[in-house]
Amino acid sequence: MERIDLLAKVKSFVNTEEKKRLLANFFSLSILQGANYILPLVTFPYLVRVLGVENFGLLSFATATIAYFQIITDYGFNLTATREISIHRNNKEKLNEIFSSVMTIKVLLMMVSFILLTILVFSFNKFAKDWPVYYLTFGMVIGQVLFPVWFFQGMERMKYITYLNILAKTIFTIAIFFFVKEKKDYYLVPLLNSIGFIIVGFWSLIIVKRTFDIHFKLQSYKTIVYHLKEGWHVFISNIAVSLYTVSTTFILGLFTNNRVVGYYAAGEKIIQAVQGLFNPISQSIYPYISKKIHQSKIEGLRFIRKVTLLFGMGMFTISLFLFIFSEPLVTVLLGLEYFHSIIVVKILSFLPFIIFLSNIFGIQTMLNFDRKKTFSRILIAGSIINLILSILLVPIYQHIGSAISVLLVETFITSTMLLCLQKSGINFIKGELKNV
């Protein structure tokens, strides 16, 4: 009896510690998300007015272009490496192996990305005429490669992500008001943003070494290939996602002009700000769910359902608010010059709720239940549909066509994910598992 009581106490203590860590991570990322809202909320209305629609559209197009290289260098490690770190967090030798392998791959991919950018910029006049903007924006890729977010997430030490990201955002925000005064200063925006990313990247590596005693060591070819294979399906998924998120702005820019891109990008920015409300929760619970499903699949599924019920209604209410108040929101945040952005916000208003469900069904459930192939196939199907819709709608309806395409594709992806989970024996609605 004493032994049973002791085991019960130990289990209770462990569960309490896990909950404390989960809450600490959630609050850390909530603070980060708060900063991510407040600081851009200060600079965003300022920038759209000072730069004007065309320059804002150019910077948005450049950001969309460079986002492809961010996807390449991420290679899905923000999910696969996070999971590996979470599982092996008490094995120092394994942590060194994972960290060194992932950093090696990311640096190599960054070099390939820089070569590809150079070929792109000097092969097409659309890019060549504004070449400094693209190279300055590429600094974000360098900073992202240096910053091992996946390591801190896997160790469930999100406070470091919070501190460092807030530092980067603060540097950028203060610098914007000091240096960007008129339209011709537009090139300073990507420069200042990149400097913030790179400073934080270097600082994060110092923390990894000093706090966690992790050291970079050259890994064998076999080990590198193993980690490449681990991240492959998520990488393909991320590429697919980009074809209906990042590519929307990119395709719009190819078919139209910087002014039209500015209308769409400004409206989309408001939607993305709201979508990000769920990010701290998603990042906090992913490693927790990975470990929980590793211990008990049914308990992991039940936890995911609780999160869905808890936050789903809130995201729906926020989406409804965006739909009803789209006009005053655009007028206050962007100004009258961006009148054409109102329809973009209205069409995309329910995306925060739809993407919340997509995150739950896809990232939190499918990936953790090892349904990577199905996850990838759904996103690839969505990306193909988006390309077809964009090519058909954008030349005729411009920014409105882009918004309609994104809404239809996100709805298709979310509903397909739920159907596939049900068919594979993961009854998400009832919280039951069959032959899983």
> What percent strand?
under 5%
Indicate the percent of residues in helices. over 70%
User: In sequence order, what are the helices and strands, one letter per element?
Assistant: HHHHHHHHHHHHHHHHHHHEE
Mean of residue pLDDT?
Answer: 83
Total beta strands:
2
Low-confidence stretches: 6-14
How would you describe this protein?
There is one protein chain. The chain has 436 residues and is mostly helical. Helices cover 83% and strands 1% of the residues. It has helices spanning 2-74, 77-87, 92-121, 125-128, 131-137, 139-146, 149-154, 158-179, 188-212, 221-242, 246-255, 258-275, 279-295, 297-324, 326-333, 342-348, 351-367, 372-397, 399-423; strands at 426-427, 432-433. The protein has a two-stranded antiparallel ribbon. It is globular and about 55 Å long. Residues 6-14 have low confidence and may be disordered.
Structural key phrases:
two-stranded antiparallel ribbon; mainly alpha; globular; 436 residues; 19 helices
Short description:
This protein is mostly helical and 436 residues long. The protein contains 19 helices and 2 strands. The chain has helices at residues 2-74, 77-87, 92-121, 125-128, 131-137, 139-146, 149-154, 158-179, 188-212, 221-242, 246-255, 258-275, 279-295, 297-324, 326-333, 342-348, 351-367, 372-397, 399-423, and strands at residues 426-427, 432-433.
